[in-house]
Amino acid sequence: MSTTDIALASAAVPAARESMLRLFAEQFVASKLAMLGLVLLLLFLCLAIFAPWIAPQNPFDIATLNIMDSKLPPGSHSSSGAITFWLGTDGQARDVLSAILYGLRISLIVGFVSVSAAFAIGATVGLISAYFGGRIDALLMRIVDIQLSFPAILVALVLLSLLGKGVDKVIYALVAVQWAYFARAARGAAIVERNKEYVQAARCMSLSWQRILWRHIFPNCIPPLMVIATIDLAHAIALEATLSFLGVGVPVTEPSLGMLISNGYEFMMSGSYWIAFFPGIALALVVVAINLVGDHLRDILNPRNEI
Amino acid sequence: MLSSIVRRLLQTIGVVLVMSALVFAALYLVGDPVSMLASPEATDAERELIRRSLGLDLPLWRQYLIFLNKALVHLDFGNSFLTGEPAIRLILDRMPATLELATAAMFFALLIGVPLGIYAGLKPESFGSRSVMTGSVLGFSLPNFWVGLMLIMVFAVFLHWLPAGGRGPAEAFGPVRLSVFSWEGWRSLLLPVATIAIAKCALIIRVTRAATRECLPLDYIKFARARGLSERRVLGVHLLKNILIPIITIAGLEYGQVFAFAVVTESVFSWPGIGKLLIDSIITLDRPVVVAYLMLTVVFLSALNLLVDIVYTILDPRVQSKAGA
User: Fold this and answer.
1) Which of B30, B132, B145, B286 to mutate to test the interface with A (most CBs of A within 10 A)?
2) Contacts with B301 (C-beta within 8 Å, 6 or more apart), sequence order
3) CA-based nearest residue in chain B for residue A147
4) Percent helix, strand and coil across chain B, each rounded to 5?
């Protein structure tokens, strides 16, 4: 083999990877709806991260709230004239827009943290299950089956009724209901990979099973897991909002979007619709944006899409 | 086939037992009932007396067996802390309201979802079916309580067409009281049913579309067309028969989900079903009712899964031959 051949071969590898990525990017951009979802999602992420600098008011700072400003309709000015409440104010004179920006932070943090943890736990269980097979596989998958045969909302409700309120507790409950999806998907993908030649080659090199599992098999299982992660992110945010709405989720001191909607619910009947309506719109946009991305990711990454 | 049903039945019983142990462990071991019942000044001897009278001094497995015996044989989950009535009675009283809601919602989801799904599967590239598919993303991604709130806002608060919550007058049919036989009853049912049906309809559309696209290129459809059968007959008989298999399976499993997710819808609409009862009991720490609800739901969902499996085996001969081989 001449040196040019080697140079060509080594150059071909990054080129191939780049073109795979480009192919993926091209396929993704092809869907306008998915792009819209992605742009919306990034916008919401920015709003959440920069909330303290963007928000007209700090909704947690009781000193800045003036009870005279409570339940003002959208577009009205504060009694001091300093702030315009574009989306109105709630029963405690908080600016609804500011509350949404801060609530967005909590909703997104709960979503991202719980999905990352569920991903880590689920992928580990699924990969071990697939790699070792036999009894370990049967036992782990039995647990997954039982877990999945019960509706997420019930498991989360019962866990939270035992754990009590709190952002951390909501995250535990969400991880508990979500890890099984990742475990099943990771196992499914890893079982296919396990029998491929590159894994046999790695075994022949007598690499440790940890190395084979994490450095060889795992990277090839990422695409289907990413699809699950995206869809579960939307699911986690919606579920957290639901739990908070039912009164078992986040505490009043850290209102997520669901909590804001729950707070505004009582004012809706009397006509102050904006207190629940605008947080509701924000929640819906976040969840739908993530699902538009996830739906399209599934089309691209899972050729054999199930539903 | 009988042996596979028996095997599934045994598995189901196993799952119910495992879940009963989990429920027992979760709700009976967390927290000390004695500390709630005894007065703060009680001496150690008095506490011991209470412990013994409640059977809490027995080994764990004996306590669990007693719980299981009472629960499964006598359907006795203790009395509600709040009303003093047997917990199981409270739940059975409210069961018809939830079943009514879940059944009506599933019915409408199928009625609307299947035709739309077939349409989307027949013409996957048309504008109409693209809109249907995008709409279905909205349908299953919007949180249930959010949809309910929006419906209340539009139809109850702004338009004053429909009531914002509660259940209409229910007529007694033996021990079961239903509200689906009167116009007033339907007025109250409409919004909660729509809330659940929108989400489930989205799912049914996707399942039907996937099944349709899978079946259309098959030879028997081509053959039916080659025989000159009308499009109506090809789709309405030949295609529908085959795509019904996955649809019935999903609809059956989803019925269980609807039953559980009624927790949310019932809370939003103050619907007096078992879901609302569960939330109220969780918030007031009415433990016997929560335990009774969980155990009944475990049995109900397991039985439903079993039933779906059996129906699936009967509908799809391929499953049977696979199981036999």
Assistant:
1) B145
2) A149, A150, A151, B256, B259, B260
3) B19
4) 75, 0, 20
Distances (CA, A) of A266 to A7, A90, A260, B150: 70, 11, 11, 14
Which residues in chain A are contacts of B27 at CB distance < 8 A?
162
Nearest CA in chain B to A239: B143
- State the sign of the Cα–Cα–Cα–Cα dihedral A158, A159, A163, A165: negative
Phi-psi region of B31 (alpha: psi -120 to 50; beta: other; left: phi over 0): left
Q: Alpha-carbon distance B261 to A262, whole Å?
A: 18
CB pairs under 8 A between A and B: 105
Name the residue facing B146 among A151, A239, A283 (closest C-beta).
A283
CB-CB under 8 Å, B294 with A291: no
Residue whose C-alpha is closest to residue A262's, from B279, B99, B122, B10: B279
- Residue B245, Cβ neighbours under 10 Å: how many? 17
> Is the CB of B30 less than 8 angstroms away from the CB of A162?
yes
- Say yes or no for a CB contact (<8 Å) between A158 and B256: no
pLDDT digits over B62-98, tens only? 878 887 887 777 777 777 777 778 888 888 888 888 8
Rounded alpha-carbon distances, angstroms, from residue A263 to A32, A256, A273, B105? 35, 11, 11, 28
C-alpha–C-alpha distance, residues B135 and B112, integer Å: 13
pLDDT digits (tens, 9 = 90+) for B122-139: 888 888 888 888 888 888
Give dist(CA A225, CA A127) in Å, integer.
Answer: 12
Give the gap in angstroms from C-alpha A136 to the nearest C-alpha of chain B.
Answer: 18
Name chain A contacts of B297, Cβ cutoff 8 Å. 154
Per-residue pLDDT of B154-163, as tens digits, reads: 888 778 787 7
H or E segment and range at residue B213: helix B183-215
Count of Cβ atoms closer than 10 Å to residue A10 Cβ: 10
Nearest to B196 by CA among B284, B105, B278, B75: B105
For residue range B180-199, what is the model confidence (pLDDT) as tens digits?
667 777 777 888 999 999 98
ipTM above 0.90, yes or no: no
Residues A123, A128: Cα–Cα separation, whole Å:
8
Single pTM value for the model: 0.81
Which phi and psi angles does A130 have, rounded to 5°? -70, -40
Going by the DSSP 8-state scheme, the letter that residue B325 receives in this structure is -
Token pair, residue B24, equals: 């027992």
